[in-house]
Amino acid sequence: MTRMNRELLKQAWLSIPANKNKVEIKEIRVISNENKDWFIVKTITDTKEFYSSSECGFNTLTEAVKFAKERNKENDSFVDYTKYKLVIN
Length: 89
Prior knowledge:
Strands 3-2-1-4 form a 4-stranded mixed sheet, covered by helices on one side. The model has no long low-confidence stretch (mean pLDDT 88). It has 2 helices and 4 strands, in the order H-E-E-E-H-E. It is of the alpha+beta class. The protein has helices at 2-14, 61-71, and strands at residues 25-32, 39-46, 51-58, 85-88. The protein has a single domain, classed as Ubiquitin-like (UB roll).
């Protein structure tokens, strides 16, 4: 019974039409917590094909910004981060 419900739910989820007018988001964000004592660099890819995000934590804003700028220069055979918008909050 549970297996059948899971399969029906999966079929229903995959049958939802994709948004053809989706605005693509490709960003590298530097975010701090409320106390400004922890900084996160979050890389977001949200396209028609897929969604992906990853995070790295840093103790200082300087370390976080340095990492974000280096990431923004990377271009390997899979992902071209040079086309990502760099956002520092």
